[in-house]
Amino acid sequence: MPDYLDPPASPPPSTAARIGIVAAVRTVEMPFGSIAVHAVADDYVTAIARAGGLPVALPALGEEWTESLVGTVDGIVLTGGPDLDPATYGERSDGSVGSDPVRDALEIGIARAALRRRCPVLAVCRGLQILNVATGGSLRQHVDGHLGASVRHRVDAVPGSHLARAVGATSFDTGSLHHQAVARLGTGLRITGRADDGTVEALEAADGAPLLAVQWHPELEGGWVSASLFAWLVARAEEARWT
């Protein structure tokens, strides 16, 4: 685990911004048999806590629960995960693997509810793709050269964007663990970061709403870029509580 994700020495105050992490249902083997659990990855939990937020797991209930779930928190992390079902953006499978239609429907609903409420969002990898599809965009179902534990590339951020302001730079290196990317851009979004081969690496709301989506996995990396993104989310969530 990256050093900066070591658990904080003390918990945040009870008034800290509540940051929801959308859970996924997983099967866990127990001595008495298999059980289904609503799981969130520890890396997200610890990154939020290190940034001063209070991590809150949002259960993977039906999509009819989305408004209620979003209403319980001050900010949201849309996490990484499997490929979206291409049917969500009107296409047939052409390189997509391992989709989860139930999770797709829930997270697309949560993304739309968060946008309506202007709830601060940090979207990671699949989360970026969820936001793009939720706003009418589509995906490139396979891109070469962006998936691997040792793959790294430069990201160029648009000056003045949330991304550039959050990290304090317009060019930096990141890892890369995805094989899909934005094709048609969703309505109301703008591209604020690209890899050196032109692949979309960051999206934000065109109207400046507190939304930041990145195609890499900051929760898995150490360093100032990763820490800055979670700090940005917690700061925006704290602001939203009082507006």
UniProtKB/TrEMBL annotation:
PROSITE patterns: GATASE_TYPE_1 (PS51273). GO terms for biological process: polyamine catabolic process. It comes from the Bacteria. One of its GO terms (cellular component) is cytosol. SUPFAM superfamilies: Class I glutamine amidotransferase-like. GO terms for molecular function: gamma-glutamyl-gamma-aminobutyrate hydrolase activity; transferase activity. The keyword Transferase applies. Keywords: Glutamine amidotransferase, Transferase. InterPro entries: Class_I_gatase-like, Peptidase_C26, PuuD-like. Gene3D superfamilies: 3.40.50.880. The keyword Transferase applies. This is Glutamine amidotransferase, class I. It comes from uncultured Acidimicrobiales bacterium.
